[in-house]
Amino acid sequence: PHRLTATYVYDLPIFTHSNGLRRAALGGWSVSGVTTLQSGIPFSIIDSSAGTAFLGAGSAPLVGASLAPGFSISQGYSGGSLHQRLNGYLNPAAFTAAPLLYPSQCQTDSNFCTTGFGNLGRNVYRGPHQQNWDISFLKHFKINERNDLRFTADFFNAWNHTNFAGPAVTDIETYIANPTSSSPFGKIEGAVGNPRLVQFSLRWAF
Predict the structure, then answer these.
(1) Cα–Cα distance, 119 to 72 (Å, whole number)
(2) Cys-Cys crosslink for 205: which of 148, 161, 164, 184, Cβ 3.0 to 4.6 Å?
């Protein structure tokens, strides 16, 4: 829900009062950039076996799962720092499959083993927050009245910060089928954006 983007340009005051080669080489630099800070991308906890009483088995892969009794939505996240949670961003104990509509009849007749809908809404969880810093250093070399040379060094994702994606698998049925640490449920397995990229350019205006 939150996204902040700031753009800025700053003329560096260093060596502005120097003379000769020092001023020509080291003075007159500017730094500019674009910084973006934002919340993580939303995602849903689903149950691929939910809603079979109404939609048929296998036809509703995006139906929400349910919270386990005694758990809140916030307890669906695991604890600890982000790097400690990459192998378990979510707490699987906080979720359960959608309930059977006729649990007692299901014990004697499999035709009654159909499910309703879970109680979790769409996109109630968010992946890790993201940030990106693009920074440029610029320098103008004034040759004469009609010729200007501009050197630019651009650093995209200047700090080489990794922005992690949300969990790749959020279907609770994958954990129910394999309730061990090897289950892919709730694990972060990828990143978004690019690593640091550096670009140099030289522009001659005449």
Answers:
(1) 12
(2) 148
